[in-house]
Specification:
The chain has a 6-stranded mixed sheet with strand order 1-4-3-10-9-8. A 3-stranded antiparallel sheet has the order 5-7-6. A two-stranded antiparallel ribbon has the order 2-11. The chain has about 300 residues and is of the alpha+beta class. It is built from 13 helices and 11 strands. It has 2 domains: about 160 residues, Beta-lactamase (3-Layer(aba) Sandwich), CATH 3.40.710.10; about 130 residues, Beta-lactamase (3-Layer(aba) Sandwich), CATH 3.40.710. Bound molecules: 6-diazenyl-5-OXO-L-norleucine. 6-diazenyl-5-OXO-L-norleucine binds next to loops.
Length: about 300
């Protein structure tokens, strides 16, 4: 990968312009104790262009907990192996509610609205446990390492912290199990789910890992072999646009106009199809669970470059 001279000044300019605002708006996620002590003033950005150039600014090379951004990659892994059968248990509609909401699950008989809310990602994790058994975590790590082009690891402290306090996820999983919508033991499915959320990656690694989403399923580091098909890639991007930022997806589409996936660690990955992937990290979250400064940085990026799908 080479440097991206066209975009380096853009990232530097955004980090400089927003630097004063670091940690001033929103709150670091506190419901996962190991995340609560992260310094809210971190701020990083990175991008990878479709022709393999890279740029990063601020804390763009510093690893953080990717949390729900992992849902893009577990979905990709499940789609690689299951194709359309995946959708028998999971919907594709925006939820209109919080990422960890329980209410819809009862109305909809344990079938989550989409793969990016917690219930949907737990259902995807169940499919992966069916596919890979006790090797599911290793399979995910191998995928992430191959996509990032360097070793990626779970933060075991974060995973343990989530397991110790993940009462709501336990409720969601047990509720789906009660409807017969999980095939594997709840503990095993949640162990995978908590670990995927505890992946530690930097903005640069994330932008690189997601690069196939801007290249019709072809990754710059995967000579010849596609990560997923062009059609699957289009569909993952569509789900990111409509469901990737939970109940703020409409606002993200309106203000930014890019497929995005956020996590409560404060990261957001965005895709400009055929052009680039972009990742931002600022730990303080707004009321919808999305990085407050990250959203502003993405808005500024789109305003300054004119890159948007609309
Ligand atoms: O399960 C949870 O609540 C967290 N591990 C992940 C939630 C998350 O990142 C939602 N994103 N905004």
């Amino acid at each position: 990968m080479s440097a991206a001279p066209e975009f380096q000044p853009v990232l530097d300019g955004i980090v400089a312009a927003l630097s004063e605002l670091r940690g001033t708006e929103g709150q670091v996620a506190s419901y996962i104790p190991a995340l609560a002590r992260i310094d809210a003033r971190h701020f990083g950005m990175a991008l990878v262009t479709a022709d393999g150039q890279e740029a990063q600014a601020g804390d763009g090379a510093m690893p953080f907990s990717i949390q729900s951004i992992s849902k893009v990659f577990t979905l990709t892994l499940a789609m690689q192996h299951l194709g359309e059968a995946l959708w028998e248990r999971i919907g594709r509609e925006p939820s209109g509610s919080a990422f960890n909401s329980l209410v819809q699950l009862e109305f909809e008989q344990g079938r989550p609205r989409n793969p990016f809310i917690n219930a949907g990602a737990i259902a995807v994790a169940d499919r992966l446990v069916s596919l890979f058994g006790g090797g599911a975590k290793a399979e995910l790590l191998a995928l992430m390492t191959a996509l990032a082009g360097e070793p990626v690891a779970f933060d075991e402290e974060v995973a343990a912290s989530e397991a110790a306090t993940g009462f709501r996820n336990l409720a969601l999983a047990n509720f789906m199990k009660s409807f017969g919508k999980l095939d594997n033991p709840v503990e095993q499915v949640l162990d995978l789910y908590f670990h995927q959320c505890a992946l530690r990656m930097s903005c640069l690694q994330l932008a690189r890992a997601a690069a196939y989403l801007s290249r019709d399923g072809h990754h710059p580091l995967w000579a010849g072999r596609a990560v997923c098909t062009e059609r699957q890639t289009r569909r993952i991007n569509a789900l990111m646009l409509t469901c990737g930022t939970y109940d703020a997806a409409g606002e993200f589409a309106y203000r930014i106009g890019l497929p995005c996936k956020s996590g409560v660690g404060g990261g957001i990955v965005a895709v400009v199809p055929d052009r680039l992937t972009l990742a931002v990290w600022a730990p303080a979250l707004d009321a919808t669970g999305n990085s407050a400064l990250g959203r502003q940085a993405l808005e500024m990026f789109v305003a300054r470059t004119g890159l948007s799908v609309f």
